[in-house]
Amino acid sequence: MTIYDDHYLGGIEERVIRDTETARAAGAKVVGVYCAFTPKELIAAAGAIPVALCSGSDFPIPLAEQHLPRNLCALIKSSYGHAIGDSCPYFRATDLLIADATCDGKKKMFELLGRKRPLYLLQLPQTSATAESHAYWLGELRRIKVILEEETGTVITDDAIRKQIRLYNRLRTIVHEAFLLNTGPIPLLSGRELDTVTSVAGFELNLETRIAEITAALGEIKERDKDDDYIASVAGRPRILLTGCPTTNRKVLHLLEDCGGIVVAMESCGGLKTVGGLVPEQGDPLKNLAANYLSIPCACMTPNKARLDLLLAIIRDYRIDGVVELTWDGCHTYNVESFQVEECVQATGLPYLHVITDYSENDTGQLKTRIEAFLELLN
Amino acid sequence: MTIYDDHYLGGIEERVIRDTETARAAGAKVVGVYCAFTPKELIAAAGAIPVALCSGSDFPIPLAEQHLPRNLCALIKSSYGHAIGDSCPYFRATDLLIADATCDGKKKMFELLGRKRPLYLLQLPQTSATAESHAYWLGELRRIKVILEEETGTVITDDAIRKQIRLYNRLRTIVHEAFLLNTGPIPLLSGRELDTVTSVAGFELNLETRIAEITAALGEIKERDKDDDYIASVAGRPRILLTGCPTTNRKVLHLLEDCGGIVVAMESCGGLKTVGGLVPEQGDPLKNLAANYLSIPCACMTPNKARLDLLLAIIRDYRIDGVVELTWDGCHTYNVESFQVEECVQATGLPYLHVITDYSENDTGQLKTRIEAFLELLN
Fold first, then answer.
1. Is B35 on the interface with A (CB under 8 A)?
2. What are the chain A neighbours of B133 within 8 Å (beta carbons)?
3. Is the pLDDT of residue A268 over 90?
4. What are the residue ranges of helices labelled H in chain B?
5. Concatenated DSSP letters for A255-281?
6. Contact state of B336 with A101 under an 8 Å Cβ cutoff
């Protein structure tokens, strides 16, 4: 199915860049964001264009290491290196940044990044378990709303937020639907395809078009369960749940599938960690946003039992054969939490593999050997 | 001056352990704490005995690495290894633990430590810059106060808190006085001695006695500026400010002085980072505690400009010749912040040395070479 190859995504990217240029010429601001905790609905409700800047490439890292410790995770260094090296067209287009105090590395990196662009930090509480943390977070969204109004010159009405909540809910729903196509006995998408079909890379504007594209793609994909060749191509491949750090760099995802596995579910930002729960469309829109976003079970939260519950649900619903946890080397939150994830997975009787790596290709051979051995275990 | 040697400290430790056993036999609870953010006044006001459990020894680390990533800092691994290996008499004596969500490594480690002891986590906001963060933190202290009341069966009155605030203020004041003896042209204490004289290691009870001991010691030390032998012994030694991670392990402190420097000031937990500001004794005692503790300029805070201001004040007041920053390898917050510290120090024209190490002795030779070269630069 060549429609979901690089050419396909490249076409979308070109269109989005063109649309963004038009919108910017008409005065729209571009707001860079780094984490799943930033409610893009608020940005869009101000008539601005959100763009996710978390980075997956290796090349800006040496530049970043001139300012940042080498033992920070690749994701943080890559994002920062792109920014200071002016090597990311998306960053270049930003007028301002909205970031979240998630992990230690990011929050301290943001202090330096603020020299490059106006940067507003959402003070994320470190738990979602208390009423006080929700009130605190709601206060942060109120503060950032005022900042967005000042920066864009647009009053953000409740109706405008509600409209964006509905739109982003539709996006979440269609992405979730893509994942759900893998709950049956025949997984209908590989992890690579899930990543491509569901990805909303770059500037987030004209989401209607993107939703329509994903819907059309899923329409075709649903036919696969009548396609004997397709069924034969996935038969017997171990069904993998990939969890852990954001799969900003695809090397582990690709290795898992190149070695014969099929990644039927991803519990990560942009995957099942963030698309499962919709923002309520009735009631105070800002409160609803606050409650939904604070509930994201990122390892930067303590406690983070919701992630274990989510993993158990995915293991059951997606007929998982084995769980692979990806930690970008230097990410303490996911790395420490992996101890509990391993316990949780092993209690289900499933094998668990913990991969700690970075964006370089240096360890590809070694990873391939480990992954092959793991997949063999599942057969 | 042999009075401040190990024998001296050993005697104090023996007495404190004896007193603690007596108090425990009479029903007092022992509450372990890990960070400077935990207001010990509250614990003491409940009639319980606070004990700091941050650890400086290397030997429990391999055990900790069975559960924790190897690339966490030595301080976290040592604390955890002591706890699960039952190798720390102070931990063994604890009835419960009060911890703070400071850095990623600690907060996630505490999730596992809670299996070993009842552990209550103070949800620290990641900034002290807003009224909301202060209100949130005050709420946390209120919550922990109720927990302490339940655990100890003691109602914590405002008067009891005020009494402890006054007592701990006296301790802070006398420790600060010890530091201030190093502001003159002749530094009256080495860093080693400051560490010994001011240290309140172990169980914190009968602080009156400890304050009297420190006061007596300082009385003797003040005579040094009339002692020609002493003056000759410190003449010409470069005056070092040691900053960064807590000096739980003394290897860098000792190396600096063994190589000819004199550490006249330490900007770290228990040092000038925490003793400079007193808790106001008038007004709502819990609010006063909250405001004082949240203002500690730890690198886990963002922004943390107060630390740079403090460093500049110390450089000026303590006639500093060079600044050494200690980072326990794996501590992202201090490590990333070191970029700004270096800028800040270099703007004053002073040399800056960043030492990243762990608790092992493996790099002693290499560190010695670097430190000698740095000290030579200062002469």
1. no
2. 123, 136
3. yes
4. 6-25, 40-45, 61-64, 74-85, 89-93, 104-113, 131-152, 158-180, 191-198, 207-221, 228-234, 251-258, 272-275, 285-294, 305-317, 332-347, 364-378
5. HHHHTT-EEEEEESTTTHHHHSSPPPS
6. no
CB contact under 8 A, A104 and B333: yes
Half-sphere exposure of A241 (CA within 13 A, CB side): 28
User: How far is the C-alpha of B116 from the C-alpha of B213, rounded, in Å?
Assistant: 35
> Which of B67, B140, B330 lies at the smallest CB-CB distance from A339?
B67
CA distances from A76 to A66, A79, A246, B379 (A): 13, 5, 11, 39
User: Which residues in chain A are contacts of B111 at CB distance < 8 A?
Assistant: 302-304, 336-337, 340
Q: Does A244 touch chain B (CB under 8 A)?
A: no
> In whole angstroms, what is the distance from residue B332 CA to residue B330 CA?
6
Put simply, the answer to whether A125 touches B130 (Cβ < 8 Å) is no
**A43 vs A289: CA distance, rounded Å:** 12
Question: Which DSSP symbol is given to A203?
Answer: B
Would you say how long chain A is, in residues?
A: 379
- Residues B289, B279 contacting (CB under 8 angstroms): yes
Torsion over CA of B47, B48, B54 and B56, rounded to 10 degrees?
Answer: 100
Residue found under tokens 């004289």: B197
| b (16+ CB within 10 A) / e for A348-363 | eeeebbbbbbbbeeee
Determine the distance from the C-alpha atom of residue A168 to the mean position of all C-alpha atoms in its chain, rounded to a whole number: 14
Q: At what angle do helices B285-294 and B158-180 cross, to 10 degrees?
A: 40
Whether B322 contacts chain A with CB within 8 A:
no
pLDDT digits (tens, 9 = 90+) for A109-142: 999 999 999 999 999 999 999 999 999 999 999 9
CATH 3.55.40.20 fits B26-154, yes or no: no
Name chain A contacts of B71, Cβ cutoff 8 Å.
71, 329-330, 332, 335
Which chain B residues are within 8 Å of A332, Cβ to Cβ?
69, 71-72, 103-105, 108, 330, 332
Residues B112, A299: C-beta atoms closer than 8 Å: no
Residue A303 clears pLDDT 70, i.e. is over it: yes
Residue A321 predicted with pLDDT over 80:
yes
Query: Is the minimum CB–CB distance between B116 and chain A shorter than 8 Å?
Result: no
The beta-carbon neighbor of B125 closest among A123, A333, A340 is: A123
Which residue in B has a C-alpha nearest to residue A123's C-alpha?
A: B126
Structure tokens at A77: 């260094």
Among candidate residues B71, B91, B74, the one with its CA nearest the CA of residue B82: B91
- pLDDT one digit per residue (tens) for chain B, 379 residues: 444 566 677 788 888 888 888 999 999 999 999 999 999 999 999 999 999 997 899 999 999 999 999 999 999 999 999 999 999 999 999 999 999 999 999 999 999 999 999 999 999 999 999 999 999 999 999 999 999 999 999 999 999 999 999 999 999 999 999 999 999 999 999 999 999 887 776 889 989 999 999 999 999 999 999 999 999 999 999 999 999 999 999 999 999 999 999 999 999 998 999 998 999 999 999 999 999 999 999 999 999 999 999 999 999 999 999 999 999 999 999 999 999 999 999 999 999 999 999 999 999 999 999 999 999 999 8
